[in-house]
Each structure stands twice: as structure tokens, then as C-alpha cells.
Amino acid sequence: MERDSIAAHKTGRKWSPAALLCCAGCIVTIAAFGSHLLSLSAARTAHLSRDWKAVLFILLGALLLAIVLATAALARRVSGNLPHLQPRKAGTGLWPVFALLVTAHLLFAFLIVRPGSGVAIDVYTFQKAACQNLLKGIDPFGTTQANIFDARGTSRYYAPGLVADGRVQEGFQYPPLTLFWALPGFVLGDVRLSYIFAVIVSAWLLFALSPDNRGLAIVCVLLLSPLTFVVEFCSYTEPLVYMALCATIYAAVKKCWWLPIALGLFLATKQYNLFALPLIAYFVHRSEVKAYWRLVGLSLITAAVTVVPFAFWNLRALWHDMVLFNLMQPYRLDSLSLGVLFPWIMKIDPVLVLAFVVWALWAGNRSAATFPAAYGVGLLLLCFFSTKAFANYYFLAAQAFFLSIAALSAAEDKNVAQGSFAS
Predict the structure, then answer these.
(1) What distance in Å separates the CA atoms of residue 244 and residue 238, rounded to the nearest whole number?
(2) pLDDT at residue 49 in the model
(3) What is the DSSP letter of 145?
(4) How would you classify residue 137: left for phi > 0, otherwise alpha for psi between -120 and 50, otherwise beta?
(5) What is the pLDDT of residues 259-280, one digit of tens each?
(6) Looking only at Cα atoms, what is the longest distance across the chain?
(7) If exposure means fewest CB atoms within 10 Å of the residue's CB, which of 21, 145, 264, 369 is most exposed?
(8) Percentages helix, strand, coil for the chain, rounded to the nearest 5?
(9) d(C-alpha 420, C-alpha 252), whole Å
């Protein structure tokens, strides 16, 4: 009987959820970095050449394959009760190696980012101006920003009417939590310092979840990937989202009391995280309906605490900057999205995301450890059929897959099969 169990374990390990997610994460990382190079070319030429269109098809095909692999991983049940044939090496001996990886990342990050030098991208200038306004006691929402683009760039990046007299009619397009996180970096000389720190904290949480060879490999992907440095250099806010996601999964797997707080902060980091609300069911047992609503309520209260002060300050400005401004953005031909080639497909994007969420809640492999994978697939679908999909979104989706691998490792060792938040 034991031999049959071990044989089944050997057969299943090749296409285990962790293996499928690893393949999907690597594919998305490579495709995302390729999309960044593609977007740079499109920005220079103002259109996609014939050769670049061929590359776009290849990258989109790779993303579609990653979506299929990650979805297959979610469909497989976690077999945490089967024995590990080769126990993973763990212990304090690997922490010095982790420290070396962190040091290497910091050295490369400071060489590439060069704090204080700035970068010609509106994401950076918006955050810098918002921090300046907040320190002066001015509401960062409802103000205007300097337009850093020429006439051609302005028509490409902003919808008609959003730029007047050389000023972008936008204050701060991200949630307030992003502003609070960027503020210490701004005080130290560069808002991007905050996101470098977010990457380091994320790496620590990953390795704390799985302090073994597997965890070390996952940390390497995060700290040494060229895509991570691109995200840090451009001052994209996804490192903050990922750090909050890592904190949420760490709390869920380790059964920490601050899970609702971490989850609420995760929801408050970016507007698109609202689609993950139904997926909170991954953190409770199927039969615990009250526990689900309790967790949702506590998380939403935590998220609201970060937004309500600015809503009282100027609700109309907050709504304009966080919601309306993003909805008015024009089509972006430099996006890695099927919507660039077939604009009509954007109309079915919300339906596809909703269908996936419903399926994910029904699928067998529903646990706290696989929440990041479900979130990653949902985010991929959200971007894949839109016309605003860039390397930062795919960075987050790929790292969510790797986080799920680390969580699966920790959950299996603790024999946690499903749910983690009890009523």
C-alpha cells in the first residue's frame, strides 16, 4: 500500500501544481521583459512594425500558454498527505546565502536606479509631485501635474482634454496607500527607494515561508530577474502590491492573527484588486460562510481606513483621480495585449474574468496557498484582453505564481490542505 502511494506520488510530481506554476511564472517573466523591449520600440516609432507584430504574436502565444498552465495547476488538488521522497534541505545555513542575494540586488538596484537622478516617465513624476503636495499640506488628489511629453507623446498617453496649458488634469492616480508608501523614499531622495525596500521585504517573506532550496530559488527569481529592475527603475507600484500579497499569504499559512489587516492592505494597494474580493473564499473552509463574510468585512474596513481620510478631504477629486482618469485613458499600441490587435475583444474581457473567478471558486484546489495563483491568472486575463497591459502587471502575475509555490511548500509541511481563517 505504501509503495502504491509513493509510486503515485512519483507519477504526480512531474505535473504537480508547483511544477505547472513554475513553468507559467517563468514564461510570463520572459514575455513581460520582451514586452518591455517591444514597448520601447513602439514608443520610438509611434507604431508597430511588421517584424514587431510577429514578435507580439509570439509573446501573446506564450502568455496564453502560461494562462493554461496556471489554470491547470489550480485544477489539481494539493496532495499534502503524501510523503516527501526527498526532504528539502532547510535550516539556518541558507540564510547567509539569502543575505548575499539581498546584497547583490541592492548593489544592482542602486547602479540601475541611481537614486536622485529621476526618470522621464509620468508614473515617477506623479508620485514625486504627490509627495511634495502632501508634505506641504495640499491634497494630492484634485491637483494638476506637469506634462513631460511632447505633442506626439501627449496624444499617445493622454485622452483629449486631459492636458491643458501644459498641465495634466490629474492629481494622483493611485490609492492613498501607495502615496504613504512612496513618501519615505521621497524624503530619502527618491520614491523608488520605497519600492526597492518593498522587493526586499517580499523576498524575506518568501524565504520565511519556504526556508529551503526551493524558497532560495524563488527568491533568486525575484531579486535577480531583469524584469524586477525594470519595475524598480520605472517606479511602478507593483512591488508594494506584491509585498502586501506576500504578507497576506504568510499570515494565512502561518495562521497569524493579522491576516485581515494584511488582506485589507493588499486590497487597498491597487484599484484592480477588487476582482480578488470573491477569491477571499480561498482563506476559509467551504462550509464556513460566516468566517468568509467576517474576513471580507474586516479586510474592507482595513482598506477603507486608508481611503476615508482623503474622501473626507475631497471626495470628488479622489473619485476623478483614482477612477475616472484611468477609465479615460486612450488605447495603447505599446501594450502586450490581444486588444491591441483586436480591439473588439475588450468587450468580453470582464465576462472572461468573471467566468474564471466563478470557476476558481468551484475548482478542487482551493486553499490559502493557491490564492496567489488564482489571483495571478485573474490578473493575466484582465490584462491579456485589454489595451493597457505592461511589464509591471505581468511582473506581479508571474511573482504571484512563484509565491504560490512557496506557500504550497509551507502548507504541505504543516499539513494545511484548505482554509486558514476560522470563525
Answers:
(1) 10
(2) 56
(3) E
(4) left
(5) 999 999 999 999 999 999 999 9
(6) 78
(7) 145
(8) 70, 0, 25
(9) 6
β pairing state of 163-164 and 145-146: unpaired
- CA of 371: how far to CAs of 63, 280, 282, 286, 375, in Å? 20, 8, 6, 14, 6
- Residue 65 and residue 75: Cα distance in Å, rounded? 15
Q: Residue for cell digits 499617445?
A: 156
What confidence score (pLDDT) does residue 52 get?
Answer: 67
Distance (Å, whole) CA 41 – CA 232: 20
H helices present in 320-370, as ranges: 325-327, 338-341, 349-362
Indicate the domain borders of the chain: 2-413
The DSSP call for residue 148 is: -
pLDDT at position 388, please? 83
Instruction: Kindly state the cell numbers that stand for 364.
Output: 478542487
Distances (CA, A) of 111 to 36, 104, 108, 150, 221: 20, 11, 5, 29, 19
Angle of helix 391-413 relative to helix 50-75, nearest 10 degrees, comes to 20
pTM: 0.90
Short-list 387, 337, 325, 389, CA closest to 158: 325
Contact between residue 320 and residue 142 where contact means Cβ atoms under 8 Å apart: yes
pLDDT given at position 14: 59
Q: CA angle 102-105-108, nearest 5°? A: 155
Cβ neighbours, 10 Å, residue 399: 31
81: confidence class by pLDDT, cuts 50, 70, 90: very low
